[in-house]
UniProtKB/TrEMBL annotation:
Sequence intervals crossing the membrane: 6-27, 39-60, 80-98, 119-141, 167-189, 234-253, 273-291
Top-level division of the source organism's lineage: Eukaryota
Organism: Pocillopora meandrina
Record's protein name: G-protein coupled receptors family 1 profile domain-containing protein
CDD domains documented for this protein: 7tm_classA_rhodopsin-like
Major location category of this protein: membrane
PROSITE patterns: G_PROTEIN_RECEP_F1_1, G_PROTEIN_RECEP_F1_2
Length: 341
């Protein structure tokens, strides 16, 4: 791998780590931000942050050196966390899609029944479940173990296992990609239908006044809003597209590798595949922040405060500051007059 590719992937990893850390810092310290949807996003961001710290840096070094430099024990550790975090992040993305649909379909019931406690138990169950399935290769049963695989330049279990053990890989692929892809398509399509049907209902914000030819007024419900429809389509494209773009190439790469010999893909193709994988933690955080109105507003407020310089002659914000300012100005003026005299 070229130096340029290594530097680009390293910068990408650092940026992804900072972005996911920013989400954690925006949501966790503030009670008003700890909604159910945001807490699920916290679980995803925490998982992606661990990916940027525990997996991606060592993968970049391995890709650049074309060999594993950190010992057999740490290879098993990194292989375990690769599968564990891949399943965890994919499951969180699925849960966020399901939560979004039910919050649109039945908002009153969703608010009353789904609490932060449910989010906590769901997150813990997700992590334990992912750890359970990722732990099988740690036992080294008949060659099913984490070790350095030159064909993929990473610490994984071998993809060319035959017999019943090959089912394990396809199960992992289903958990980390296929099942989530299916869930995303179904849930967001149903969410789009629910939002469109809700927009057609008669409500105070959905009424348009029209003037008839005889001069009388009438009100009609707006049945079509091109802007909202475009926004919904963009939302669907960003969420589903980002997932398929970052996880799809690796799934195809691994499936083809399991049926072919080592070195079937060129080095450039391999670099491109891993570039898309490393783009996932960054792209997921950016997409979900930009589509979350509260988080987006908080980010813009912080950026505005950082960019905008505070005026020296800023008007006092309360009566105490105002009186203190008047007193200081009076004392300063009086001292100046005394010195002149």
């Amino acid at each position: 791998m070229s130096i340029v590719a290594v530097v680009l992937l390293s910068v990408l990893d650092v940026f992804a780590a900072l972005t996911n850390t920013a989400i954690l810092c925006l949501v966790l310290p503030r009670t008003c931000m700890r909604t159910v949807s945001n807490l699920f996003l916290v679980g995803l961001s925490l998982t992606q942050f661990l990916m940027t710290v525990l997996v991606i840096p060592f993968s970049i070094v391995t890709l650049s050196q074309q060999s594993w430099q950190f010992g057999e024990g740490f290879c098993q550790f990194q292989g375990f966390f690769t599968i564990f975090l891949s399943i965890s992040s994919a499951t969180f993305i699925s849960v966020i899609a399901v939560d979004r649909y039910f919050s649109l379909a039945n908002p009153m019931s969703h608010t009353a029944r789904v609490t932060s406690t449910h989010v906590l138990f769901t997150s813990i169950f997700n992590w334990f479940r992912a750890a359970f399935w990722a732990a099988f290769p740690l036992f080294g049963i008949d060659g099913l173990k984490y070790k350095f695989v030159p064909s993929i330049n990473g610490c994984r279990f071998r993809l060319d296992l035959k017999g019943s053990y090959s089912i394990y890989y396809y199960f992992i692929a289903m958990e980390s990609f296929l099942l989530t892809s299916f869930t995303l398509c179904i849930m967001y399509f149903k969410s789009f239908q629910t939002a469109r049907n809700s927009a057609r209902q008669v409500r105070p914000g959905n009424i348009q006044i029209q003037v008839l030819q005889n001069g009388e007024f009438t009100s009609v419900a707006q049945t079509k809003n091109s802007f909202q429809s475009l926004k919904a389509n963009v939302t669907l494209a960003l969420i589903i597209g980002s997932f398929l773009l970052t996880r799809g190439p690796l799934a195809i790469f691994n499936i083809v590798t399991s049926f072919t010999s080592e070195g079937y893909f060129s080095a450039g193709t391999e670099t491109t595949v891993y570039f898309m994988v490393f783009l996932g933690p960054l792209l997921d955080s950016l997409v979900y922040v930009l589509l979350n109105r509260k988080l987006r507003k908080e980010v813009f407020l912080i950026l505005r405060k950082c960019v905008k310089k505070r005026s020296v002659e800023e008007e006092p914000k309360d009566i105490v500051d105002y009186l203190r300012t008047l007193t200081d100005n009076y004392v300063s003026t009086r001292n100046s007059s005394t010195e002149i005299s």
